[in-house]
Write a structure and sequence with these properties.
Nucleoside Triphosphate Pyrophosphohydrolase; 4-stranded mixed sheet; 7 strands; 3-stranded antiparallel sheet; 3 helices; alpha+beta
Length: about 130
């Protein structure tokens, strides 16, 4: 997240969808180190990890994603083998371009009420309860 409130997003090379940068942790790295590595690999932007803002479970695939709010600390936006576009989006642009299950991760990071814990089926959020 930049100081102006814009959020870093990528258009994935494999399916063309807009999502937040991320990926799978290496066996020997901490979640925070994985965030720094994945964001740099996919976007060219160096970040400092601020705090955990959400935990999101895909109940169809059994995957749990941890989302951290970060701030840029260097580098420059560039695409990679995993991204065809890298942009700093407004919250409204996030809602317009991203599927609900990805947009909510970025929007949750803005509200300061986290960490949020949510489940989804890969397409839609599953109401808590």
């Amino acid at each position: 997240m930049r100081e102006d409130g814009r959020l870093l997003a990528i258009r994935r090379a494999d399916n063309g969808t807009w999502e937040l940068p991320g990926g799978v942790l290496e066996l020997d790295e901490t979640p925070e180190a994985g965030v720094v590595r994945e964001v740099l690999e996919e976007t060219g932007v160096q970040v400092e990890v601020d705090e955990l803002t959400g935990v999101y479970k895909n109940t169809t695939r059994g995957v749990v994603a941890l989302v951290f709010r970060c701030k840029p600390s260097g580098g420059a936006e560039r695409t990679s083998s995993e991204s065809t576009a890298v942009e700093w989006l407004t919250p409204d642009e996030v809602s317009e371009r991203m599927a609900e299950v990805y947009a909510i991760r970025l929007l949750d990071a803005l509200d300061g009420n986290g960490p949020h814990v949510r489940s989804h089926d890969g397409k839609r959020l599953i109401p808590a309860g």
